[in-house]
What does this fold into?
Amino acid sequence: MRAFPSPSANVILEAFLNQFRSISGIEIAVIIEILNYEACRQLSQMFLAVIFFHSSEYVLAVAVHGRSKEYWWISNFGLLMVIIGEIIRKMAIITAGQSFTHLIKVHHEESHKLITHGVYRFMRHPSYCGFFVWSVGTQVMLCNPLSTIVFALVVWRFFAKRIPYEEYFLRRFFGSEYEIYAQYVPSGVPFVK
It folds into this structure.
């Protein structure tokens, strides 16, 4: 059996294996080795990709624009956008609680409630608004006008298609209650009704 990096992980694994020795004739140790190796490999690949792609973007921005103090206020404004966008998105997730999901629900569940309080009083899709502000803010922070425009267009187009699709189901789930809510509260994404 392959040794794990920490002794405590080996102890936990051994205790687990002693309780559940086999599943349909396949040793659990073999399954855990495969899953553990695959999980570690995929996780390390993800971290390396994030480090490479994000750090290369910042290095390129510094190489092209330099460390000019001339545009510090634009970069700081972008940072402010990132912070505000993140706060709006987190407030939306916390306020919605169990009703929040990353997937559009196509079937109404009992736990699914129409949330109209908190940040949802001001916009119907605060999570989308927060992500839009955050994503554009990352590019403003880098003082990259071309990427700012491209990010804004791509993210806006995504939400311009997603919001009507999601609202079709919200209208089916909540009927006139959602119609009245949508009539008085904006979507939160510019130019999306």
